[in-house]
């Protein structure tokens, strides 16, 4: 079994990881606490191959592409767009329903952010 870790340090999970050394752990960086959870955790950095994505001329808007989760900077993306006076398009879906309803949705409504829902495959590449 292989488990990829994408979270910050969590004492309860760290204890669990230490109790199951047969499970191989892979972290996405050495910064998250997950990588410190157990010695010998391998790191495979997230990365994008730039040649897979088209370089388009200025489109007149900013794009947030990802899950709507507080660790992904959703509200910060909205704030940046508002401060810059540039429309924001958000492509993704809520990850934490309560966070979305209480913090993100009101900002989307207030600032007229365009939500296009989750995208993947060719549409994401474009």
Total separate domains: 2
How much strand content do the residues show? 15-25%
* CATH superfamily placement of the largest domain: Glycogen Phosphorylase B
Helix content: 25-40%
> Biggest sheet, strands in spatial order?
1-2-3
**What name is given to the CATH topology of the largest domain?**
Rossmann fold
Label the overall shape.
globular
Low-pLDDT residue spans: none
Helix-strand pattern, N to C?
EHEHEEHEHEH
Name of the CATH class of the largest domain: Alpha Beta
What class would the helix/strand composition place it in? alpha/beta
What's the CATH architecture name of the largest domain?
3-Layer(aba) Sandwich
Describe the largest sheet.
3 strands, parallel
The count of DSSP E runs of length 2 or more, i.e. the number of strands, is 6
What is the number of helical segments per DSSP (H or I, 4+ residues)? 5
Overall average residue pLDDT: 83
């Amino acid at each position: 079994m292989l488990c990829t870790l994408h979270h910050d340090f969590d004492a309860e999970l760290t204890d669990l990881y230490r109790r199951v050394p047969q499970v191989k752990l892979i972290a996405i960086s050495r910064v998250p606490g997950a990588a410190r959870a157990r010695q010998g955790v391998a790191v495979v950095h997230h990365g994008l191959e730039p040649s897979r994505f088209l370089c388009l001329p200025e489109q007149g808007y900013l794009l947030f592409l990802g899950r709507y989760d507080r660790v992904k900077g959703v509200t910060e993306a909205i704030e940046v767009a508002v401060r810059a006076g540039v429309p924001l398009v958000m492509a993704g879906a809520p990850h934490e329903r309560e966070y979305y309803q209480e913090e993100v949705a009101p900002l989307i409504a207030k600032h007229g952010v365009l939500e296009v829902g989750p995208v993947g495959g060719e549409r994401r590449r474009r």
